[in-house]
Design brief:
By secondary structure, the chain is of the alpha/beta class. It has 2 domains: 277 residues, Aldehyde Dehydrogenase, Chain A, domain 1, CATH 3.40.605; 199 residues, Aldehyde Dehydrogenase, Chain A, domain 2 (3-Layer(aba) Sandwich). It contains 17 helices and 23 strands. Helix 6 runs parallel beside helix 7. Bound molecules: nicotinamide-adenine-dinucleotide and (2E,4E)-2-amino-6-oxohexa-2,4-dienoic acid. The site of (2E,4E)-2-amino-6-oxohexa-2,4-dienoic acid has 9 residues, from helix 7.
């Protein structure tokens, strides 16, 4: 059985405690590897290595050399594309057709984009008058923030982890990464690529384990970590924020959502159906930006529901290697229990089940997998659990609306504010509504269309701070003003 070890100071090491946990393939329920669980000793060693690398070669390296190395990291991911793809799909069960277009290419792009960006970052300078007439010059310099604790989730493991590690390293920081216990493999594999690319030992460190009372908690309590960047549930974000408060460490939090799609009667219905299908069911609904609440203007409500149902029923459920499959399992049986509990709540709350609502029949070799049906409901009250709580599964509730103001009010009615998608061919309306939606990201006639230079993050309880482009560089650097009396 394969073992997945920590990556500390450029080497793979096991846990001193000998504690291992199972890595399970969610498509069939089989154990694919044993993962070392980090204790305090491994987290201490990783942070120590990261600190030493910061003071040593990485901290002293020119931006040109550093960015060249990061380009080699990106090229290394691309060169080992099939290995990363296989590992990601085994850990998550997601279709290879999806991961080969999104997860793995973005893993590489996240290094290139930020390496290129850091080469052209401007700072500021101000001349000032002084009473003695000699004047003074203020100028600012950017310095790495230090050792960054990176805690990442399981839904887009390589993409979301490198979305943080790419800019952190580009800015000259060193990192200790704690990937999700569900999906440790690509984060571990990246260690090999780092070594091959010439990243000095200690710059990229990985410790495996769980959240509370395990690697996650040891990392967030560690006094020698300078800042934390986290993607995951809002509740976990609150816990991490509390831990980071000790020592006044900064946090960047990309958290949960309960995103609204608003479909106006003047939309291009083909586009709206295609986009809503993707936003509700891609990655088996396990995308933080996904649409779980769909509001449709009444004149097209029945047609929209019928066409979305047809689209959901046309999804091809299958394992990652099935080239026809575009719908995989959930990440784990634990997550399936959560999603199925909402399927039950919907039934209890009196929903009309338009399609799905249960577990699909799968062939014998996949019967042990964490499968659920793509599910659509109508008819639930606005305050029902299914409509107000993040499910993070392949499901959505569709509700009619009559006026633009009502749609905006419904979209803004929850404490989350991550993303929203508006479907309309009326440009004035698109701008007007987008401006009033309380979310960090609003798409008009599209969904998950990404330019990595743009600000990414959530409003309200969906997060703190923005990542992407110069916004990542803001978080991963400390801006220092130097005032020189002339
Ligand atoms: P999670 O919060 O359960 O876990 C995320 C990571 O935090 C894991 O590595 C986990 O081990 C770790 N963790 C858990 N408890 C911890 C603790 N007490 N201390 C330190 N670390 C701890 O989230 P998940 O289930 O892995 O991911 C799904 C959630 O992530 C959903 O809520 C989804 O909306 C959110 N998400 C948000 C974004 C975004 O960009 N806003 C992106 C992807 C996922
Ligand atoms: O595209 C990205 O950069 C990003 N952070 C996507 C997040 C998806 C959430 O599941």
């Amino acid at each position: 059985m394969k073992e997945i070890k920590h990556f500390i100071n450029g080497q793979y090491v096991g846990s001193a405690s000998g504690k291992l946990f199972d890595n399970v393939n969610p498509a069939n329920g089989q154990v694919i590897a044993k993962v070392h669980e980090a204790g305090q000793a491994e987290v201490d060693a990783a942070v120590k290595a990261a600190r030493a690398a910061l003071k040593g070669p990485w901290g002293k390296m020119s931006v040109a050399e550093r960015t060249e190395i990061l380009h080699r990291v990106a090229d290394g991911i691309t060169a080992r594309f099939d290995e990363f793809l296989e590992a990601e799909c085994l850990d998550t069960g997601k279709p290879k057709s999806l991961a080969s277009h999104i997860d793995i290419p973005r893993g590489a792009a996240n290094f290139k984009v930020f390496a290129d960006l850091i080469k052209n970052v401007a700072t500021e300078a101000f001349e000032m008058a002084t009473p003695d007439g000699s004047g003074a010059l203020n100028y600012s310099v950017r310095r790495p923030k230090g050792v960054i604790g990176v805690i990442s989730p399981w839904n887009l493991p390589l993409l979301l982890m490198t979305w943080k590690v790419g800019p952190a390293l580009a800015c000259g920081n060193t990192v200790v990464v704690k990937p999700s216990e569900e999906t440790p493999t690509t984060t571990a594999l990246l260690g090999e690529v780092m070594n091959e690319a010439g990243v000095p030992p200690g710059v990229y460190n990985v410790v495996h384990g769980f959240g509370g009372d395990s690697a996650g908690a040891f990392l967030t309590a560690h006094p020698d970590v300078d800042a934390y960047t986290f993607t995951g549930e809002t509740g976990t974000g609150e816990v991490i924020m509390r831990a980071a408060a000790k020592g006044v460490r900064q946090v960047s939090l990309e958290l949960g959502g309960k995103n609204a799609g608003i479909v106006f009667a003047d939309c291009d219905l083909d586009k709206a159906i295609e986009g809503t299908l993707r936003s509700a069911f891609a990655n088996c609904g396990q995308v933080c930006l996904g649409t779980e609440r769909v509001y449709v203007e009444r004149p097209i409500f029945d047609e929209f529901v019928a066409r979305l149902k047809a689209g959901a029923e046309a999804l091809v459920i299958g394992e990652p290697n099935d080239p026809t499959a575009n719908f995989g399992p959930l990440v784990s049986h634990k997550h399936r229990e959560k999603v199925l509990s909402y399927y039950q709540k919907a039934a209890d709350e009196g929903a009309t089940v338009v399609t799905g609502g249960g577990v699909p029949d799968m062939p014998a070799h996949l019967a042990g997998g964490a499968w659920v049906q793509p599910t659509i409901w109508t008819g639930l009250p606005d305050n029902s659990a299914v409509v107000t709580e993040e499910i993070f599964g392949p499901c959505c509730h569709i509700r009619p609306f009559d006026t633009e103001a009502e749609a905006i009010e419904l979209a803004n009615s929850l404490p989350y504010g991550l993303a929203s998608a508006i479907w309309t061919e009326n440009t004035s309306r698109a701008h007007r509504v987008a401006g009033q939606i309380e979310a960090g990201i609003v798409w008009v006639n599209s969904w998950f269309l990404r330019d990595l230079r743009t600000a990414f993050g959530g409003a309200k309880q969906s997060g703190i701070g923005r990542e992407g482009g110069v916004h990542s560089l803001e978080f991963y650097t400390e801006l220092k003003n130097i005032c020189v009396k002339l």
